[in-house]
């Protein structure tokens, strides 16, 4: 009996890597997890940067003084609820990095279970995706055109890039980083319709600066898009004034030929429209606008394909503005079924 009791009290769970144990402090797991991400090298550098940033900003301040065995479901649940009270996005990002780091500890037999598996579900606030109307799109075009026609007394004059970037987003649904990554070789403006290959994105990374990444956000994001005439015309105007005729040359770039940052394009768009009294327009709003139009005029699947989504549910939830008008055909059908008989 004494032997059985002693065996029952013994912790038979032994980690594979003795440098990390259940009694290790949480920051040790963070470094272990980040090193494993670097070793696997399966995620994009920008994603790796975001994971580390979220872990250090959202999770470490709360957990840095605890050992791994002290961080259970209750502590994780409390942290996520606290973050969720102010920001659903922050809570979701914290849950992602916690789940991944604890999953590594479980796989490497440092912990017997992942506490994130049993935390309560995050409740996402209901939001209706916003999209622009045709009148709003034309108002934005007019404001940008007026600004690009100005000639200032100091600094470089507008060169038409902002308006052309907007036309490409409207004609392709591409993300702003994907638009800024377009090279000469990705365009074929000789066919009808003209086509554009989306096969990269521009990212800014601490320590590396801004550069073109050879793959877009996901594998499905690699796609060839037929261009509407207004987008093809904007790109032809751009190509006509480009000084660099190399196939690798970026279509949208600085005067030195270096990539534009997505932050600067967003800032410039916000300032130009804000000066004209138009607030709240972001590059992503053009993507939602395109998704809404294609869904209403054709189908959800076509909208999802154009956006490069792997799951149409993402398109519905985040990109398509709900149409509150029910098809008026219902009135005709109900009249046929329940119309009152004529009285004698």
TrEMBL record:
Xref: SUPFAM superfamilies: DNA breaking-rejoining enzymes (SSF56349)
PROSITE patterns (alphabetical): CB (PS51900), TYR_RECOMBINASE (PS51898)
- Keywords from the named record: DNA recombination, DNA-binding
| Ranges for domain Tyr recombinase | 127-339
**Which Gene3D superfamilies does the record associate with it?**
1.10.150.130, Intergrase catalytic core
Q: Which residues form the Core-binding (CB) domain?
A: 24-106
Kindly give the InterPro entries that the UniProt entry links to this protein: CB, DNA_brk_join_enz, Integrase-like_cat_sf, Integrase_catalytic, Integrase_recombinase_N, Tyrosine_recombinase_XerCD
Family note:
Belongs to the 'phage' integrase family.
What protein name is recorded for this chain?
Site-specific integrase
């Amino acid at each position: 009996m004494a032997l059985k009791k002693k065996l029952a009290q013994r912790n038979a769970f032994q980690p594979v890597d003795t440098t990390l144990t259940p009694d290790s402090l949480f920051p040790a797991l963070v470094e272990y997890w980040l090193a494993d991400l670097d070793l696997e090298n399966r995620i994009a550098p920008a994603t790796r940067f975001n994971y580390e940033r979220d872990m250090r900003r959202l999770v470490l301040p709360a957990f840095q003084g605890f050992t791994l065995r002290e961080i259970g479901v209750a502590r994780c649940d409390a942290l996520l609820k606290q973050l969720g009270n102010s920001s659903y996005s922050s809570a979701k990002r914290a849950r992602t990095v916690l789940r991944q780091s604890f999953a590594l500890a479980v796989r490497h037999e440092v912990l017997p279970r992942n506490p994130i598996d049993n935390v309560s579900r995050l409740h996402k606030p209901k939001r209706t995706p916003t999209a622009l109307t045709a009148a709003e799109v034309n108002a934005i075009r007019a404001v940008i055109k007026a600004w690009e026609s100005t000639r200032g007394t100091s600094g470089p004059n507008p060169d038409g890039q902002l308006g052309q970037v907007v036309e490409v987003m409207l004609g392709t649904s591409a993300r702003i980083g994907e638009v800024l990554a377009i090279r000469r070789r990705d365009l074929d403006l000789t066919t009808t319709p003209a086509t554009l290959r989306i096969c990269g994105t521009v990212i800014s990374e601490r320590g590396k600066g801004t550069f073109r990444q050879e793959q877009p956000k996901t594998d499905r994001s690699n796609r060839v898009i037929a261009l509407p005439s207004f987008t093809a015309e904007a790109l032809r105007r751009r190509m006509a004034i480009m000084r660099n005729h190399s196939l690798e040359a970026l279509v949208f770039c600085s005067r030195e030929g270096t990539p534009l940052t997505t932050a600067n394009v967003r800032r410039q768009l916000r300032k130009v429209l804000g000066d004209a009294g138009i607030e709240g327009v972001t590059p992503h709003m053009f993507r939602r606008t395109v998704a809404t139009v294609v869904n209403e005029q054709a189908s959800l699947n076509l909208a999802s394909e154009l956006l490069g989504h792997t799951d149409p549910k993402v398109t519905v939830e985040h990109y398509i503005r709900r149409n509150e008008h029910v098809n008026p055909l219902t009135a005709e059908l109900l009249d046929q079924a329940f119309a009152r008989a004529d009285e004698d």
